[in-house]
Design a protein that fits this description.
two-stranded parallel ribbon, 4-stranded antiparallel sheet, disordered N terminus, 8 helices, alpha+beta, 13% strand
């Protein structure tokens, strides 16, 4: 519900309002918005709807097909036939010796004719129709799974983009603190220089670091803006819409997901499930080619009226329209097709075998992916813990170095080096945190638990 509220709010603020209001988004909000607005997902949704329409189209082929046919003709050159006069009584050429009787031209067609009729055809039996109906439903299932796969990919992309934006936010905040710390140190050292307790070179060293930090801050701020635009792009949101991230890195819990101790259910991975559906489609195609050997039966009902006249006006005289009707069954029995169906069936068998080999390969790939992701996540968690300790130690070293310098028992260089080490340890920690979060997302995806719609 919250995602729907945010969507309505964004639409409302984008219509008739020049200054868009900032929207506060959690990771769940971003995912929900992306699932409804990402352009690639919309394409897959349309594929799903096309598959639904394909099922309805296939069903309609088995329903009665009714047509009304009507026509009026002006026969400006009526069709004629040649008749042998000898075939008529009294037309024997032997009765008139020495004379040759020529064929007589006769036309049974009048200048005007018309017809109107209703024709209804009903499928009685066609093996291909029933198999096609199964195939259409299976195709719909495949398109649904492709849509689910796209949703999983979107959730992965949005999650990584969201945490990347959080990391950029944290980096910017740390740089602000570093700049404030260096600015304080610069002012204190400048006062010490004016009082004669420090040299100008000490002030210059800190000023160089401070200027470099300002450049780094500007660059990081640009990266922060880019990371936000990337997040909005993955969501399908207007890139100019101001947003604020609700969550913080302190709330992020990086741990190893529960991995099944028993054999892994490969159907949890949408890629494997897609292959199973493709195999079903190949089997149905084979079944369709086999039922082609069976006859096809259709029922037909026709009823209509026809007329003919030498005068165009007589076409519209109701009593001249004569009715006619017929009902019957049509059968089509295949005899020989040059081994076409047999070769198609052999091709289907090879396709099934090919898909089964792909399924075996995907199983091994999934096992390897899970193991690699698990090892990577465990390693990243260990690295993250080390980087966190290093950051805490670097903070202690800086605090001690600054106190020593302020009390006159430490050097300016020692403080600058401690500050540089602290900033470096903070950067390393944030990079390790992002890598750990990414590994966690990839392991969940490998286990098929990243997103369940």
């Amino acid at each position: 519900m919250r995602g729907i509220f945010i969507l309505i709010m964004i639409i409302g603020t984008s219509i008739g309002v020049h200054a868009q209001e900032k929207v506060i988004l959690s990771l769940e909000d971003c995912i929900n918005f992306a699932l409804g607005n990402n352009e690639q997902l919309k394409i897959k949704q349309l594929d799903k709807e096309i598959a639904e329409a394909e099922v309805r189209k296939t069903i309609s082929m088995g329903l009665p097909q009714a047509n009304v046919n009507a026509g009026l003709n002006y026969n400006f050159e009526p069709q004629r036939s040649l008749l042998d006069p000898s075939s008529f009584p009294g037309g024997d050429s032997s009765a008139m010796p020495g004379m040759v009787q020529e064929d007589i031209e006769l036309s049974f067609q009048q200048k005007y004719d018309g017809n109107i009729g209703l024709v209804v055809n009903q499928l009685i039996f066609d093996g291909s129709y029933f198999v096609g109906l199964q195939a259409a439903r299976t195709y719909r299932e495949l398109s649904t799974k492709e849509h689910v796969k796209s949703q999983i990919d979107i959730v992965e992309a949005v999650s990584k983009a969201y945490y990347n934006a959080l990391i950029a936010e944290e980096q910017l905040e740390l740089l602000e603190k570093n700049m404030s710390r260096l600015d304080t140190l610069l002012r204190e050292t400048d006062q010490m220089y004016l009082a004669g307790f420090a040299e100008k070179v000490d002030v210059d060293r800190i000023r160089v670091n401070y200027n470099n930090l300002k450049v780094e801050y500007s660059r990081t701020n640009q990266l922060r803006n880019i990371s936000r635009k990337l997040l909005k792009f993955q969501m399908g949101m207007d890139l100019n819409q101001p947003i604020e991230l609700e969550e913080s890195l302190e709330e992020v819990n990086v741990d190893v997901p529960v991995i099944p101790s028993e054999s892994f259910d490969y159907n949890q991975r949408i890629e494997f499930s897609q292959l199973e559906t493709n195999r079903s489609l190949a089997h149905l195609d084979m079944k369709n080619n086999r039922v082609q050997y069976l006859p096809k039966l259709y029922a037909r009902l026709g009823y209509g009226w026809n007329t003919a006249a030498s005068n165009g006006g007589d076409l519209f005289v109701s009593r001249r329209w004569l009715d006619n009707g017929a009902v019957g069954i049509t059968a089509s029995i295949p005899i020989f097709d040059g081994f076409l169906k047999s070769n198609k069936i052999q091709q289907n068998k090879l396709q099934v075998k090919q898909i089964e080999n792909q399924m075996s390969y995907v199983k091994k790939s999934i096992d390897l992916e899970i193991e690699q992701s698990q090892i990577s996540l465990n390693s990243q968690i260990e690295t993250l813990e080390v980087q966190k300790q290093n950051m805490e130690l670097a903070q202690e070293v800086y605090d001690i170095s600054k106190i020593k310098y302020q009390e006159g028992v430490g050097s300016n260089i020692e403080v600058i080096n401690a500050d540089t080490s602290l900033k470096e340890s903070q950067t390393n920690y944030l990079n390790s945190l992002f890598q750990a979060i990414t590994s966690q997302i990839e392991l969940k995806k490998a286990l098929g638990t990243l997103y369940n719609n």
